[in-house]
Amino acid sequence: MIDKEVARTFDRRAALFLTGGTILTSVLILRMLQMQVFNYREYTEKSENNSYRIQMNMPERGKILSRGGAPISRDMPIYRIYIVPEEAPDVDALVDIVTAELNLRPKRVKKIREKIRKQPRFQPVLVSENTNWAQLAGLQAKNLAGLRVASGYARVYELGPAGAQVFGYVGAPSKPIASAPFFTTGITGLEKRFDDTLAGTAGQTVMITNAVGRVTGEDKSQYIAPQAGGNIKTTINDAAQRVLYDALTVHRAGCGVALDIETGDILAMVSTPSFDPNNFSADDGDEYISSLRGDRAKPFMNKVVEGLYPPGSTFKIVVALAALESGAITPREKIFCPGHWDYGDHRYHCWESKGHGWVDLAGALQHSCDIYFYQVALRIGIDAIREMAVKLGFTEKFMDDVISREMTGVVPDRYWKEKNKGARWVHGDTVISGIGQGFILANCMQLAVMMARTASNRVVVPRLILDENAKNPNFASLGLQPQNLRYVLNGLELVTKKGGTAAGSAINVNGAKMGGKTGTSQVRSISKAERKSGVLTNEQLKWEMRNHGLFVGYAPTTNPKYAVCVITEHSGGSGSAARTAAATMRELLKGGK
Fold this sequence. Notes:
Elements (H helix, E strand, L loop, with lengths): L1 H37 L1 H11 L1 E6 L6 E2 L5 E13 L7 H12 L3 H13 L6 E7 L1 H8 L6 E11 L6 H4 L2 E2 L13 E2 L2 H5 L1 H5 L3 E7 L5 E4 L13 E2 L4 H11 L5 E7 L5 E7 L12 H9 L9 H4 L9 H11 L8 E3 L2 E4 L2 E4 L7 E3 L1 H7 L2 H22 L22 H8 L5 H7 L10 H13 L25 H14 L19 E7 L6 H6 L14 E8 L6 E7 L6 H17 L2
Parallel strand pairs: 2-10
Antiparallel strand pairs: 1-8, 2-3, 3-4, 3-5, 6-7, 8-9, 11-12, 11-19, 13-16, 14-15, 17-18, 18-19
């Protein structure tokens, strides 16, 4: 009886194990059929991918060109040096030789040795990313085992710091690409704005690797050649760009721009202090960039469009035209300037404490008489002033499609003050607006456009990129009365003549002369106590408390072709700006476009 029960139990368990075994075997067989028959292609591709390493082949980046076709930014062939530790009989000795030959810094050598220790011995270690042909030839002549060379490209900026904020620079992307460790992208300026055009299309090389990642060969059937990027042509006159930069670097900080009045072409655009993007790829590139970020004068900022300044006396052009167009003044009407003017309970001062005596419009522009424009501004009111300012280009964005962070500035009226200051507009606000102070702010580009429109009576709009297929623009008429413009331009011609505020910056290039308007914008208020005890000179003030110097100009005075604006930060007066503008205008008149 017991034997029969045991036998039955055994039979049941045997059947159970057999059934389970059959099910498991069936599952395994079905899984094998799925992997090897039904999903063969899927798993074959995965297997092949595990044995391939795709290396991107970077293309030559397109050029940024001047208006004459000369490269401003271009790629230069370079060589990258690697050490493969397992191929070197003595790795330490090889590092010593390469260090001496390439003159590598100790910090760099330390990083190389750390990578050699941490990485598998068959993996290449980057030694130098930017090696020129002469250095490479010196190494190859030594026939060093364990040394490998790869070719690539490095960006070269022909103008160096002259316009670096405009043209921009390239660098590593925020998220590095493992298959393209030396991939670069536009970080700022035109390099960033036109990155899609300049970058080109990367190719690929497919390397065959074994289970541990060692490269064993190349699958040439999957090779794809890279395609070079396209070029971008700018309106920049590279000679004028250099002259403007050199003239501005005499001062600690500032900006300037020169325009072709007929086409709106930006012939030069500079912001200082600047930086040399060619230094970014050097061994001490990180230290160089850190020093720039700590500079209070903001070298990375394109002050031509990002900087906002009180326009000072350059704004008197706007007030003069608004007054003439409204009929509030005649060109020959004279106003007396004793050096100050009392209105209400406030005394307004002229920059010339002795006064200018009786002055008409031309004399007021020539000598930049504040008393004249205080009273004229009060006659016409802020609404007429704002209307003319807007017509001449204030508050507009001109470069937003190619340069980021452009600022529009402020031309206030009673509604603006109520909204932004929570106070009503008073006559004193209008008076001080007459000389470009108070709440008024503009950028350098807007002031250059003001000058170009005044000199041409057309709605000039600046441009930086040249389209070879596009025709020159046909700007609409500004609609101002020609005789009123002539009255203002006559006064501006006197500014650079004897007795004018920019007489020391007069030019004469084959008979071509320059007219313009100086400006000094205050960055601090002068108290009654200081006026009584004696106004501090700029030399007595800290740099950041000194006045800005401004100049807007045009040339030739007989048939205007060029307009320019220069701002020298905290230079104390307009002389430095006028001299910088004169140097740039000489180059344009001498060399043409």
